[in-house]
Amino acid sequence: MDIEKNNNYMKEDIFDKIMSLPVLNIFNPFYKKNKEILLYLFFGGLSFIVSVATYALFNVPMKMDALIANVLSWIITVMFAFLTNRVWVFASPTDNIKDFMKQMLSFYSGRIITLVIEETILLVFINMLGFGSLLVKIVAQVVVILLNYVISKLFIFK
Fold first, then answer.
1. Coil vs helix vs strand at 73
2. Is the pLDDT score of 65 beyond 90?
3. Rg of the chain, C-alpha, whole Å
4. Where do the domains of the chain lie?
5. What is the enclosing helix (H) or strand (E) of 5?
6. DSSP class of 32
7. CA nearest to 80, candidates 52, 109, 44, 118
8. What 8-state DSSP symbol labels residue 95?
9. Which part of the chain is the GtrA/DPMS transmembrane domain (predicted)?
10. How far is the C-alpha of 128 from the C-alpha of 131, rounded, in Å?
C-alpha cells in the first residue's frame, strides 16, 4: 500500500465515528483490527439484500425467467458493490479517470466470472432440476459473496 493510499485509509470515516460512540467504543479495538473484513461483511450483506430483493422483484411479480432476472439483478447489485467496496471496504481511491476506469473494469471483470458461476448454479438447480427459485438464489449468493471477496482482495483493490 503506498503512502497516499495508506493516509486516505487512515482518515476517520463514518464507521470509525460510529464505533467511537459511547457503548460501541468498547468494540473499537476489535473493529480497528478487523475493519476491512467487518465492512466487507456489512456491505456484502447489503449487496446480498439488494441482489435477492431485485431478483425476487424481477422473477416473482414480473414473472421473468430466473436467468434474465438474475442478470438484471446483477447489474444493479454490482453498481452498488463497486461503489461501497471502493470507498469504504478497501478504501481504494484513484488519482485520475484512467485509474478509476481500470479499477472499475477489473471489478466488473471479476464480477462477470462469478456471474457465470451463479448463472450456472441457477440453470442447473432451477431450470434443470426444478428447485425453488429464491432458495437457489440465496445459496448461490453465499458462494458468490465469498468468491467476490477473494477476487476483490487479491486482484482489484490490492
1. helix
2. yes
3. 18
4. 1-33, 36-156
5. helix 3-10
6. H
7. 44
8. S
9. 40-157
10. 8
Contacts of 62 (CB under 8 A, 6+ apart): 69
What pTM does this model have? 0.80
Give CA–CA dist 129/122, Å, rounded: 10
Smallest CA-to-CA distance from 8 within 99, 93, 97 is with 93
Q: What is the pLDDT of residue 8?
A: 46
Q: State the burial class of residue 30 (Cβ atoms within 10 Å of its Cβ: 0-12, 13-18, 19+).
A: exposed
Q: Report the distance separating Cα 107 and Cα 153, nearest Å.
A: 11
pLDDT band at 1 (very low <50, low <70, confident <90, very high): very low
In the chain, pLDDT over 70 holds for what percent of residues? Answer: 93
Calpha distance 104→79 (Å, rounded): 10
Q: Tell me phi and psi for residue 62, to 5 degrees.
A: -90, -10
Higher pLDDT, 83 or 90: 83
Query: Rounded CA gap, 39 and 149, in Å?
Result: 11
